[in-house]
Amino acid sequence: METIDVRGLSCPSPVLEVKQAMDRGVKSLKVLADCGTATENVTRFARNANYSVDVKTLDDGTTEFTLNAQ
Amino acid sequence: MVKKLAYWPIVAGVIFGVAAPLLAKFGNPGNMGMCAACFLRDISGALGFHSAAIVQYIRPEIIGLILGAFVSSFLFKEFKPRAGSAPLARFFLGVFAMIGALVFLGCPWRMFLRLSAGDWTALAGLAGLIVGILMGIYFFKKGFSLGRNRPAHPLVGYMMPLFGVILLALLLWGMYGEATPVKFSTKGPGSMYAPLMISLGVGLLLGFVFQKSRFCTIAAVRDTVLLKETHILQGLVAFVLFAFITNMLLGQFHAGFEKQPIAHNDALWNFLGMVLSGLALTLVGGCPGRQLVLSGEGDSDAGVFIMGLLVGAGVAHNFALASSPAGIGANAPFMVFAGLIFCIVLGVFAKERR
């Protein structure tokens, strides 16, 4: 599983990095995000791209996504 | 592409589309019910950073946007103090975004408001905005990034909301105080404004819904092209549609190219001004209004960008770059090209180290 850390990046970089990983054919990836906009964008984009989305909030407030192609 | 209706962006677009023409009805300048660039320019003048006597006023809408976003981000637990993503690059992107906007005479918000009122001179601006955004998208695809911010001390996050409160105090000092250093226009667009409580109230409401919805004119186009996502675009369409309807109902719709309020019909410079603005705004990550909202939710780099817009307004008026209804400023062509070169060099070379 590939991990993408988009914490601290401003839009559209977080969702663009996720898109580029998917375009490379990555079927399973973990994403670390830290702002509400990026969190929403990644969730929406992944669902539209037919990936399952599991969300977990870590102790430091980071949102950890697990995305899997369906 | 419209897989699901975007609830919050549409709500934000509808409220904005109705409110902005109403603000013009209540006293704001023509087709300028709400304009982040023009209003920051007026604030810059009121604080004495430029001496164009007809565009000086502390616009309560701007204060409301920052504070409304601050309240919303607190309620939804999204207030996150953060800083440190190439602040000086963002500052100069702000300077050039403002210069481009003042060559066109409006930020993207006002561009759409002008179109919704039948001002077809804004069509060249729309084309320019789209070209600017497409250029920005190209750089993002090639790996452009201004780098990461870091979590910051809460005090850092409170600075822009505090700046909003200070602007409010200065506004009251300018309105009611004696021997005030705050400059207010006695004629021209700066002297035209809706009653304070209405302007402030609408600003607060919009700041709140824009924070919740992430409403942004740049993201509307950018995400549609880059991600095939119409989430924010749906909000923009609702905004333009409802602004059009409201303008019709208020008798503020006048279709044509001539004699449009606070606009000129120099298509080339309307286009190029907006190319510059659209590119600078895409590189920084959102339109001026969106940056005001981000600055309210603790993004100190967005705050630095706003400071760049304020300084850019001073530069634009002090160096004969800003347009007037009579046409563009004497030095505008040089500065628009200088700004484009700045943005392109940044777009090509600024990449995140991995």
Task: Describe the 3D structure.
The complex is a heterodimer of chains A (70) and B (354). With 70 residues, chain A is an alpha+beta fold. Chain A has one domain (2-69): Translation Initiation Factor IF3 (2-Layer Sandwich), CATH 3.30.110. In chain A, 34% of the residues lie in helices and 34% in strands. Chain A starts with a strand and ends with a strand. Chain B is built from 14 helices and two strands. At the A-B interface, helix 1 and helix 2 of A face strand 2 and helix 9 of B.
Structure, briefly:
Chain A has 70 residues and is α+β, with helices and mostly antiparallel strands. Chain A has helices at 13-23, 36-48, and strands at 2-5, 28-33, 51-57, 63-69. In chain A, 34% of the residues lie in helices and 34% in strands.
N- to C-terminal distance of chain A:
15 Å
Query: What best-fitting shape of chain A do the alpha-carbon axes yield?
Result: globular
**Radius of gyration of chain B (Å):** 18 Å
Query: How large is the count of helical segments of chain A?
Result: 2
Supply Rg of chain A.
Answer: 11 Å
Share of helical residues of chain A: 25-40%
Poorly predicted runs of chain B are none
Distance between the termini of chain B: 34 Å
Oligomer: heterodimer
Which CATH first-tier class of chain A would you pick?
Alpha Beta
Core attributes:
heterodimer, A: 70 residues, Translation Initiation Factor IF3, 4 strands, B: 354 residues, 2 strands, 1% strand
Indicate the topology.
The complex is a heterodimer of chains A (70) and B (354).
Chain A: E1 2-5, H1 13-23, E2 28-33, H2 36-48, E3 51-57, E4 63-69
Chain B: H1 7-25, H2 36-46, H3 60-75, E1 82-83, H4 87-104, H5 108-116, H6 122-141, E2 150-151, H7 154-176, H8 196-213, H9 217-227, H10 231-249, H11 267-284, H12 288-296, H13 300-318, H14 332-349
Antiparallel strand pairs in B: 1-2
